[in-house]
Amino acid sequence: MREKIVRLLPEGWSLEGKRALDFGCGSARVLRQFLDEAQDAELWGCDIDGPSIDWVKTNLSPPLHCFQNGRDPPLPLADSSFDLVWAMSVFTHIDPWSDWLVEMHRILVPGGFLIASFLGEGIWEALLGEPYSEDEVGMTVLRHWEPGGPWVFHSEWWLREHWGRAFEVLEVDRPPRGDDGSPEITHSYIAMRKGSPEINAEELERCDAREGRELAGLRTNLRLLRGEIDELIDERRKSAGPASSLRRAVLRSRLGARARTLHRRMRGLPP
Known about the structure:
37% of the residues lie in helices and 20% in strands. The protein has 271 residues and is of the alpha/beta class. The chain has a single domain (2-206), classed as Rossmann fold (3-Layer(aba) Sandwich). The strands form two sheets. Strands 3-2-1-4-5-9-8 form a seven-stranded mixed β-sheet. It has a two-stranded antiparallel sheet with strand order 6-7. The radius of gyration is 24 Å and the shape is globular. The model has no long low-confidence stretch (mean pLDDT 92).
């Protein structure tokens, strides 16, 4: 990921004398790869996980700086605080997302850079078990119950359309392809420069009714969500099967009347 960040920055751009933030740094797994640059740059990291931030403070600060952020913006930072922000495996699990992208825009200096990884064609088939179709994927959010956040997939056209309202998209790095034409199973990356001087969450989320891929992407997300619901219902039925059968058997037996009375007493109801 360090190599990706360095390669996606403009040729000749250097961290020397600049400030950079690793948004969602965890235990500095990426940030620690820049310790040499930390001698001439001010490098920061933030994360929602307190123990990870405590570890970084104990083991890597100085030269790194870090703080714990909340679940929602804003960050405790002034406007135009950083020349560079990167977010590795962060927007892959954030929903809602638009307020955080506005926050990235706020803390970057004019012309500052944002580099983020995203779940695209390299991950789609591996996780969802179906072919990836660029024109039928927009922003797809699944598995909302995951403790680390949902799975959030993006297509390149959708990122250019929506994120491109706040940033100038410089490059989208999609996974390399094998001899059979299939993409490598890995993240994709987007590099952007701070653009529009003013932006808000509503404008970022707005769907262009003239863009047919918006509707196609929503249909794909709806279809996959319905599939998830069906799977959850099946799992619930299977797990509840033996218990439900036992409950029915007890209620039909000579213990049924006592069971009903006990149940009502436990709920604080009259017998």
